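Running this now, will post back.
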Amino acid sequence: MKRLFRRRSVIDLQAEAHRDQRLHRVLGPLNLIALGIGAIVGAGIFVLTGQAAAQYAGPAIVYSFILAGMACGFAGLCYAEFSAMIPISGSAYTYGYATLGELIAWIIGWDLILEYLFAASTVAVGWSGYVVSFLHDLGIHIPAAFTSAPYNHAAPADAGWNIWRLFTEGWTSSGAVLNVPAMVIVAVITFLLVLGIKESASFNNVIVAIKLAVILAFIAVGAAYINADNWHPFVPPQLEPGRFGWSGVLRGAGVIFFAYIGFDAVSTAAQEARNAQRDMPVGILASLAICTVLYIVVSLVLTGIVSYKELNVPDPIAVAINSLGSGVAWLRPIIKIGAIAGLSSVILVMMLGQPRIFYAMSKDGLLPPAFGAVHARFRTPWVAQLLTGSAATLIAGLFPIGLLGELVSIGTLLAFAIVCIGVMVLRFTDPAIPRPFRTPLFWLICPLGAFFCFWLMWGLPPDTWARLLLWMAVGLVIYFSYSRRHSRLHHGLFARVETEEIQQP
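Update: finished.
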């Protein structure tokens, strides 16, 4: 049991961050803020806002964003402390290793695979919806069989915690073959990320500027067309637990929490920041603050323009613009282009994060060495990038957006809760370690952050919990069959200063 909960020394991790220069340190504070905005502003505004309003909260989706934003604010402060203190690419996985031990670190790392891999796939499905709509406006029609998932899923309402029924029932054929546009965008971005972090960040900066301009245009124009009747009742009467009413607001917060995970992705780029101790807290907290305000305003305008009942579609912003008539016809293609560009940047940042988690886990011996291979020329974790991209491509082509979004949310919430607990634990176990950024009132912020995350997790449906537990069970099998025996910490290898060669592709 002691071996399972052995921790890596924070001092050792800091020394490793200084020693390991294989990844390219080129990102400044503006790049990091743009990465955060690139990941946060996208699926939440362009996809999940409308769907969560239609299925769970109605116009009260605004309250859902506020609840999720509060949870993210607490978690963001904890991430800022860790990312400045331990500037390693492993994000929450590494933070867990330093505070709660190897087994918990593995659980977080395995959980982050669920977060980033399915996040990229979720957004790719939303991207596909906007591309199809835009091409339709241009007179180009892609057959429906190649623009959506071959299966739909709705968990049986009376299944409760019957795991067998949750997994086997509720699946129906959509008549489609594959979501081809979603698969194409994931494949293209995968190869872009293999080419280099600097090139990827530059591409992201341009895309972020475009989508912020488009969102501000939507707010400015849409505000003039708000029909206040669409806001009544602001909290629709509850139809069943988790569907409208205040329980629907809670479930909506758990689902759209997915939209906030961008600052987590920023922390995975810590080892590629020029001055991580100074710039990581800025990138995390500034991007989170900017995006929370945008989410609240856009959700108010969206549900004011069109009834929430009409927003259960992959492209709700496009639906809202189409409902305004010919007077704003000029804005329709602009909004759709902005959405396509914005969702592209979200996919990019999500796809950037996962291989860096693999890179950190491989360096610790918990995954095979191939996952830590760095390209000699491009200085990116190219093998992990290609593996992640291949898996995300298949997932984007096969599964519907609602199922993917809920899986991402529960994985993210679990990782955030553990980070909040980890900050508090480290304050007591290693109080003397220099902390370039300190979470204020940690004795209040950390417990509140963990509480909000677990509370939002509780609001998610049983079938989502069942899939999380199954995913964790698979992860534990891998840990005890491979990772535990190959752990470098177990073999005492972190006590040695090693020279690691860059692996050739």
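The longest strand covers residues 151-153. More later if anyone needs it.
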